[in-house]
Design a protein that fits this description.
- The protein is built from 7 helices and 9 strands; from the N terminus they run E-H-E-E-E-H-E-H-E-H-E-H-H-E-E-H.
- By secondary structure, the protein is of the alpha/beta class.
- The strands form 3 sheets. A 5-stranded parallel sheet has the order 2-1-6-5-7, with helices on both faces.
- Helix 3 crosses helix 5.
- The radius of gyration is 22 Å and the shape is elongated.
- The structure holds the ligand N#Cc1c(-c2ccc3ccn(Cc4ccncc4)c3c2)n[nH]c1N.
- The site of the ligand N#Cc1c(-c2ccc3ccn(Cc4ccncc4)c3c2)n[nH]c1N has 18 residues, from strand 5.
- Its main location: cytoplasm.
- It is found in: Cytoplasm.
Length: about 240
């Protein structure tokens, strides 16, 4: 099954990068199909205007609904279809999580609506909700200038989970935030040389004792999670007091 990804933006060139690396390979393998669109193609004035002043006053500009609606009609269609997932990156969106990425990895179609300025006229989101499955999501508690970077990050998080994308799917199970990791942060990683600039690989990892190695890794995941992400520790994870 091919996942179709559409990107609506006034800077469609942001998505040229999707031709590179694994994502490019996935497109070649037919796993994903990428289409980037310039929202200004659905404007009709000489200046190709996509924004206007906010109703009720306030700073900045708001993206007009008309170009979005016409782009939706052409790109997605005019009939409701809950199998189409429409993603609006937004600073006021719900935090995007690994479980959301997991859910979206089985979608047949995802449309990213990348706003700029102060944001998109809310009626665009309301209209989209009446037609498709809509996700208003945020990457995190910091401010970006638009939705494109978020769309790229979400794309990578989702597509890497599509069956057949990763050469070794087993590696997914041990990553931070993966279900296989019990929601813990990933343990520290080491490779050769065993000694590097006076720094050595922990002896336990060279012991060949799989039980001890597994315990060290679990303990390190719990330690790191307690230190850096207490919000993820909804239990003691058997932390020794
Ligand atoms: N996802 C996500 C985001 C964004 C984001 C996303 C879309 C748009 C469209 C326009 N802007 C600029 C803007 C608008 C209003 N307030 C502040 C900045 C965006 C920011 N910022 N921070 C995140 N984690």
């Amino acid at each position: 099954m091919t996942m179709r990804l559409d990107y609506l933006s006034i800077f469609p060139a942001y998505f040229d990068v999707l031709d590179i690396s694994l994502l490019g390979k996935a497109a070649v393998n037919g796993l994903v199909e990428v289409h980037a669109h310039d929202l200004r193609d659905w404007t009709h004035d000489r200046h190709r205007t996509v924004d206007d002043t906010p109703c009720g006053g306030g700073a900045g500009m708001v993206m007009k609904p008309d170009p979005w609606g016409e782009a939706f009609d052409e790109i997605i269609g005019t009939e409701p279809d809950s199998s189409v997932h429409v993603i609006f990156p937004s600073p006021s969106g719900a935090p995007f999580t690994q479980s959301a990425a997991q859910e979206l990895s089985s979608a047949v179609r995802i449309v990213f609506c990348c706003g700029r300025y102060e944001g998109i006229d809310h009626r665009v989101i309301d209209y989209a909700r009446s037609m498709w499955t809509v996700h208003e999501v945020s990457l995190g508690d910091y401010v970006l200038n638009g939705g494109e970077v978020a769309a790229l990050a979400i794309t990578e998080a989702v597509v890497r989970l599509v069956p057949g994308f990763m050469g070794n799917p087993e590696s997914l199970a041990e990553e931070s935030f993966s279900a296989g990791q019990d929601g813990l942060l990933e343990y520290p990683l080491f490779t050769r040389p065993v000694s590097w600039r006076g720094l050595d690989v922990p002896e336990v990892l060279m012991s060949g004792h799989h039980g001890r190695i597994a315990k060290w890794r679990r303990d390190e995941s719990v330690r790191l999670t307690c230190e850096r992400r207490p919000d993820l520790t909804d239990s003691d994870f058997g932390v020794p007091h």
